[in-house]
Amino acid sequence: MTQKQGRVAGKVALVTGAAMGLGAETARRLAREGAIVMLTDRDAAVEAVALAITAEGGQAAFMLHDVTDEAQWQDVVKDVMARFGRLDVLVNNAGISGGFLELLTHSLEDWRKILSINLDGVFLGMRHCGPLMAVGGGGSIINLSSILGKVGLPNAAAYCASKGGVLMLTKAAALEWAPLGIRVNSVHPGFIETQMVSNALHEAENANEMRDMLIAAHPLARFGVPREIADAVVFLASDESSFMTGAEMVVDGGYTAR
Ligand SMILES: NC(=O)c1ccc[n+]([C@@H]2O[C@H](COP(=O)([O-])OP(=O)(O)OC[C@H]3O[C@@H](n4cnc5c(N)ncnc54)[C@H](O)[C@@H]3O)[C@@H](O)[C@H]2O)c1
């Protein structure tokens, strides 16, 4: 597909946490659908993902970027404007699971680390990218929440709190920025086959049992794959979703339908 065609042709998109997993797949699919993509991550592996997109004929750039660092957000925004002159799509994807921790063994430090990446990072992204989008006449912001922003899971209190925060931050921003033409929606994946899930399972004492239990909690009887989330993000980034804002897009194999 050439840059002039595609569902998001010509749009400039910024994807955080794009070195692997859902962020990398989202960046690849946005590029295949014609977007110009800025990939950021605190992990240097983001460079290889950007280079692979370029090698495939897509348009991509990358920057090292920790989403909890406000000064780095300023640098990213400056760089995007210098290179591309506009920003149409922001995908606030970077996040951590924090592992399985009982509520009483969560330290305040664990709690703050999870909240700072998963929730403060999204707030900072919107705060720094929103004004750019407004100047350009609007845009689409997609915030990665989770099914665990809608329903609880034992031993994941901080993660659930952070993702529930993303859900409501999304709705409040959607209302505030609708007059600016900026749409803000959240995506709520079920368990998806990425390093985040395999690492969390690896650390669990009863990994096989837990994997089977989690799979059984999805009526479609499997974990999702990154493409299934990336496709939802491309839809929200595109004008196909032009009447959607403040919405919760659940992509969970039926996990929350029970
Ligand atoms: N995989 C799942 O089952 C699942 C389910 C629901 C929601 N999510 C959410 O989707 C997003 C992506 O998850 P994933 O499974 O691809 O995870 P992953 O661990 O495979 O990838 C996450 C990426 O975010 C980056 N990152 C972490 N902290 C960062 C920081 N402070 N600054 C910049 N980059 C940072 C990592 O380096 C990594 O490249 C996360 O927000 C996650 O909570 C994932």
Question: Care to describe what's here?
Answer:
This protein is 45% helix and 15% strand. The protein is α/β, with parallel strands linked by helices and 258 residues long. The protein has one domain: NAD(P)-binding Rossmann-like Domain (Rossmann fold, 3-Layer(aba) Sandwich). It has a 7-stranded parallel beta sheet with strand order 3-2-1-4-5-6-7, sandwiched between helices. Strand 5, helix 5 and strand 6 form a beta-alpha-beta unit. Helix 1 packs parallel to helix 2, helix 1 crosses helix 8 and helix 3 packs parallel to helix 4. The chain is globular, with a radius of gyration of 17 Å. Bound molecules: nicotinamide-adenine-dinucleotide (NAD).
Brief overview:
Helix content is 45%, strand content 15%. With 258 residues, it is of the alpha/beta class. The longest helix has 28 residues, at 108-135.
Distance between the termini: 40 Å
Task: Spell out the helices and strands N to C.
Answer: EHEHEHEHEHEHHHE
CATH superfamily: NAD(P)-binding Rossmann-like Domain
Mean of residue pLDDT values: 96
Main features:
single chain, 258 residues, Rossmann fold, 7-stranded parallel beta sheet, globular, binds nicotinamide-adenine-dinucleotide
List the helices and strands and how they pair.
Elements: E1 12-16, H1 21-32, E2 36-41, H2 46-55, E3 59-64, H3 70-84, E4 89-92, H4 108-135, E5 139-144, H5 157-177, E6 182-189, H6 195-203, H7 207-216, H8 226-237, E7 248-251
Parallel strand pairs: 1-2, 1-4, 2-3, 4-5, 5-6, 6-7
The structure holds nicotinamide-adenine-dinucleotide.
Residues 16-17, 19-23, 41-43, 65-68, 93-96, 117, 144, 146, 189, 191-192, 194-197 line the site of nicotinamide-adenine-dinucleotide.
